[in-house]
């Protein structure tokens, strides 16, 4: 039991043997599901990896020394017992993906330095204890996906909802006061694409002809009256034999 509470000790040899090649050719240090309770200091000697996976462990804290992993593009810390993140996480300027889902993070302990991750595309904050989202996350202009599901949120700031490249926002399982707002925040972001209108005189001949042809096709489709449906005729169809009739409850031609 004592050993179980201390968690597994990660040596440099174990860490080196846990390095894998990711799908894009980067180096991935995979220490997931290892029963780790404290951040292994030895992995600081492997700080040149591109990806670090410490998910599904029992970590309560990430040290400021995480800033040594300056090449990191992918950091997975989901399913631990993290109650806070270090301010130093904001120094990981190459970070593309950050998953801190399923921890014990509160809004108070989300460092403001998260808004410095200018290259972040995917951020997962789901399954935590967040009662609000910092408006400063609106500075993450490259975000395409953000997970906020299963928290204690009652609203989502417009600065986050209106991020220019955001394609997916999952906020299911939050106590939004209005059910219509919950539906509005769930799953994908719906946007109205910008429509550029031009006059016919501003189009070149080929573009004008293409537009006119498309318009004519649409008009033809609108003017077509649907013809009454006819039952298909199968004159060469062979009538099923008596054995088949006996073995099947009904034969029906549709």
Automatic annotation (TrEMBL):
Residues 226-236 have a biased composition (Low complexity). InterPro entries: Leu-rich_rpt, Leu-rich_rpt_typical-subtyp, LRR_dom_sf, LRR_domain-containing, LRR_R13L4/SHOC2-like. Keywords: Leucine-rich repeat, Repeat. It comes from the Eukaryota. Residues 66-241 form the Disease resistance R13L4/SHOC-2-like LRR domain. Gene3D superfamilies: Ribonuclease Inhibitor. One of its GO terms (cellular component) is cytoplasm. Pfam families: LRR_14. The keyword Protease does not apply. Residues 222-254 are annotated as: Disordered. This is Leucine-rich repeat-containing protein 18.
């Amino acid at each position: 039991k004592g050993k179980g509470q201390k968690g597994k000790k990660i040596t440099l040899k174990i860490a080196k043997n846990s390095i894998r090649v990711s799908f894009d050719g980067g180096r991935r240090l995979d220490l997931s599901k290892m029963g780790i309770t404290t951040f292994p200091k030895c992995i600081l000697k492997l700080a040149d990896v591109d990806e670090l996976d410490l998910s599904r462990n029992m970590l309560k804290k990430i040290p400021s020394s995480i800033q040594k992993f300056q090449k990191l593009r992918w950091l997975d810390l989901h399913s631990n017992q993290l109650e806070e993140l270090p301010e130093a996480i904001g120094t990981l300027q190459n970070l593309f993906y950050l998953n801190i889902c399923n921890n014990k993070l509160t809004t108070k302990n989300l460092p403001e330095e998260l808004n410095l991750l200018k290259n972040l595309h995917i951020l997962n904050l789901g399954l935590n204890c967040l009662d609000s989202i910092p408006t400063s996350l609106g500075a993450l202009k490259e975000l395409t996906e953000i997970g906020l599901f299963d928290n204690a949120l009652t609203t989502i700031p417009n600065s986050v909802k209106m991020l220019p490249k955001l394609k997916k926002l999952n906020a299911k399982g939050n106590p939004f006061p209005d059910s219509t707002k919950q539906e509005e925040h769930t799953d994908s972001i719906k946007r109205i694409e910008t429509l550029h209108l031009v006059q016919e005189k501003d189009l070149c001949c080929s573009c004008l002809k293409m537009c006119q042809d498309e318009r004519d096709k649409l008009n033809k489709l609108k003017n077509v009256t649907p013809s009454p449906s006819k039952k298909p005729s199968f004159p060469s169809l062979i009538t099923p034999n008596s054995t088949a009739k006996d073995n099947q409850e009904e034969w029906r031609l549709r």
